[in-house]
Amino acid sequence: MITIIDYGVGNLFSLKSSFAALGAEVQVTSDPEAILSATKIILPGVGAFEDASNKLHATGLDEVLKKCAEKGTPIMGICLGMQMLFDKSYENGCFNGLGLIKGEVRAIKEVIPADLKIPQIGWNALDIKKESPIFKYIKNGDYVYFVHSYYATNCDESVIATTNYGAPLTAAVQYKNVYGCQFHPEKSGDVGLRILKAFIEA
Amino acid sequence: MITKRIIPCLDVKNGRVVKGVNFKNVNDVSSPVELAKYYSECGADELVFYDISASVEERSLFTDILCETAKSVFIPLTVGGGINTVNDFDRVLKCGADKVSVNSGAIKNPNLVYEAAKLYGNQCVVISADVKRVNGVFKVFAKGGRVETDLEAISWIKRCVDNGAGEVVLNSIDTDGVKKGFDLEMLDAVCNAVSVPVIASGGAGKIEDFIELFKKLPKVDAGLAASIFHFKEVEIKKLKEELRKNNIEVRL
């Protein structure tokens, strides 16, 4: 059973469909009890960090997720959900994340050449830096779909893949049982489905 | 680096694809679900669904078929046609669209782009413009290219982007259907005016047209076409192989 956290951020249609296509049972919930007893957790997210951070805090789900991470439940953050895993973000100010992975989130415009478009929208190749259970079914150089204006940095220890957009940007992270993808595996065709399949088995 | 995107556009009417033809391995070519799967498997980077139905019942039929398609296609899906209000955004997003394309709706209601971008994020709002030269001026046309407006195209597109549109589809009426290549002059003018991704539409007839597009205008992010893909005049896999041979980065 895959538990997708519903905290009012983003469209969950494709995530639900992806897991359904992989034959996994899915529950979408904001119920703390259900999340605490979950065996696999997906933290989605699209939009602004401040809003998402406020929503996780207001619902108390931030503390619930910290407990889940501590007791070893596999958690995968996707896109903004991945950014939420870090200590803090500098998107329109400075806001605290969940602090499950050391590092911070900054604007990609600080590190990429000025002639590149922001957000990065489209398919880009994964440069795999470390082996990870979620890469079990994919290979270095596989393409995944990105839509983002911010990226995780100062997180060298946990980076498992980067992508080159004028500069190497953090594409995926792992610290123990906590995983994050800056790209959208649910929109990345077969490669994305294979990453989700590997997470189901992680 | 980020790849150039190849995007087939499916015109859907009464829940069926219009202009569907004979595809190998596709039993029902006018089924949006089957055709979308086919394109997704043969390397399309994204799909555009265009609702050309009119009545309210057809609209709910469209959203049913959209839901069914979105459930089995795991590449980005843009939906357009008849998007006039933020409720229309809500309706198609709930059925699995990732981006929503607005055209006449944004002309009628100048606040639509701004309101939708606030609610759903810039990445979700695509401004689609049908543009034609009138006395040497790029003019925006409404209602599927049938009605001339007072709007000068470049400044109008720029205004939409300033209001929050995260992508531009530029369809040149002058080159549409001619199959002699994209409208490079018009595309260049738009690329120089905005800093969001620009998708070229109208005029592609053969593989070389896409090579020319991306070679001459490196700022263009994607090429969109309909009938040449449907009629297999250009096969997406072959197109992408040729682009790669010409040092244009694509996902293969």
Characterization of the model:
The complex is a heterodimer of chains A (202) and B (252). In chain A, 25% of the residues lie in helices and 32% in strands. Chain A has 202 residues and is an alpha/beta fold. Chain A has a single domain (2-92, 104-201), classed as Rossmann fold. In chain A, the strands form three sheets. Chain A has an eight-stranded mixed beta sheet with strand order 2-1-3-4-14-13-12-9. A four-stranded mixed beta sheet of chain A has the order 6-5-7-11, with helices on one face. The mean pLDDT of chain A is 95. Chain B has ten helices and eleven strands. The radius of gyration of chain B is 17 Å and the shape is globular. In chain B, strands 1-3-4-5-6-9-10-11 form an eight-stranded parallel β-barrel, surrounded by seven helices. The mean pLDDT of chain B is 91. Helix content of chain B is 37%, strand content 24%. The interface between A and B is medium-sized, with 31 and 28 residues.
